[in-house]
What we know:
The protein is globular, with a radius of gyration of 26 Å. It is 22% helix and 28% strand. Strands 2, 3, 4, 5, 6, 7, 8, 9, 20, 21 and 22 form an 11-stranded antiparallel beta sheet that branches. By secondary structure, the protein is of the alpha+beta class. It starts with 11 loop residues before the first helix and ends in a 14-residue tail after the last helix.
Amino acid sequence: MIRVPSFGARCRLALRLGACACLVATSVTPSFGASGDADQVVARRGDELVGLWSAERRSGPRLRGSLVVERDGADVLVRLGGVAATARFDGDRLDVAMPHDLGRLRVRVDGDGLRGHWIQPPGEFLSGSWATPVVLDRLPSTAPGDASPATWRGSVEPLDDRLTLFLAIERDPARGDGALRGFLRNPERNIGVYLRLGAVVLDGGEAVLQRADGSELGRARRHTDPERLSLHVQGTTFDFARVDPAAALGFAPRIEAPPLRGLVRPTARADGWRVAAPAEVGLDQTRLSAFVDRLRAQVPRGLREPALQALLVARGGHLVVEEYFGGFHAERPHDTRSAGKTLSSLLVGTAVDRDLVAVDDHVLAHVGARWPVADLESEPDPRLAALRVEHLLTMSSGFDCDDDDSETPGSEDRMQSQDAQPDWIRYILDVPMVRMPGTRGVYCTAALNLLGGVLTEATGTWLPRLVDERLMRPLDIEHYHLNLMPTGDAYLGGGWHLRPRDFLKFGQLVLDGGEWNGERVVSADWLARSLEPAASLNEADDYGYAWWLSTAPYGEREVEVAYASGNGGQLLLVVPSLDLAVVFMGGNYGDYGTWRAFREEWLPRELLPAVIDPRGLGSER
């Protein structure tokens, strides 16, 4: 059993929608009331609404594509997407803001090229800014003998700012009067679970959407074209079109012609993964194929159903299962939510390995100079003075902070919904302490994010650059997105977007003792220490250094499972004794009762029984 994670900033849009009923365009009492006549009208006139409706809104970002940097003497011209800005190098660094807050480029000279990040501004549906890696190659000079002019070219692939909505309407089988009911499904945020759509009734040219308790949620305006509906969402009008459920990308699990059966061998790519068939690494391919076939057949009938979007399995150092659902694919980065906390722990490990940080270090020894916590007239709370790096890693900081209780001042939702203090390191340091550090484990994202301040001061490095140098580049991860705090530094509390194949690499890193394809990324000592029980959040000894710890049945025994966990079903599970790593990624945000099945049911009932040879295969690599 694990704690139900807080929704966090990545669900703030959904929470706002649920709180203010943003589908509402007007608020008029249906003319049918609750009479029998209304039921008859619904029964006669509802056929044109029955079915699946789809709408998608992409709001940029505006700048993407080919990026060109040209230097002539001291002047530098940056061009992207028809927008240009001028700047100058500061030593080996180039930091240039594009006009009208359309983005920012931060790169350094790297050999003959440039390497760094593109900073994407907040969007309509994406809150906060995002850092995406960019690499620019130097083009051959067009002026032989003149070393001054130089041109570099690369590309920017920002995170899509999109919102997809599916409105499913059907006759309510629990009623015999032909009444309509519906649900809203959204693969990016699952906002339907907050809106709680129930009945759908007609009122003139509009369809009235009602919550499960009978209150009015909003109205959909019908057009003269019976194949279109319009909804007003968060100040934006969505035009819905009727779609075939079997052909609705993002709603149907898979769209295939003819339908595939069984597993498809993972594609070999230049990303460091070796691929194999399950049978080649001691797995029951027939059993795995049957499981994937069942996943393909799960057409959504409501919100409380699994919305699996990716399933990957690695064994023996090989990627053997790679399946995507609901419109997702290998190249589409997926939100890892709070599973990103575990990756932050690995980042800390790389600093510990270099003797830049120690788990016994006092936090204020690192951050106290930049973020002072006491004025000249007083001393800091002795409990805060006792706070160590290890306490942040183990969720035992002692702050008045509990993500399961948004009323606590340090909770993630409260921190991210306020604007008075944009510096989130400063914010958590100002939260009162309520207990001595190390005495009790309480899930507090803001405290773990304080590790970002520790790393910044200990390494003297901008966090996105540190993430790129210490984790992403060594693991052959070229495309990702880091969400940034309002101050412009990386948020270590979660929410990093990774391609599922790259997310799985962190599991293989654990199985291989901190190495990726023979190259050391983090020490085996750090991993061993990280996977030792250090705190109890839900059960005794269920948390290490930002790793959840549990067991699962395998045959007649229990095997240890270490895992990273994020809201919606973002799971990286590692079973060292079976040399097995698994990734689930899903869209059941805010619905722990559904996505908990990925770990508690599908892992022990479907995947572990497929391990025919229980021996670890690491010695054979």
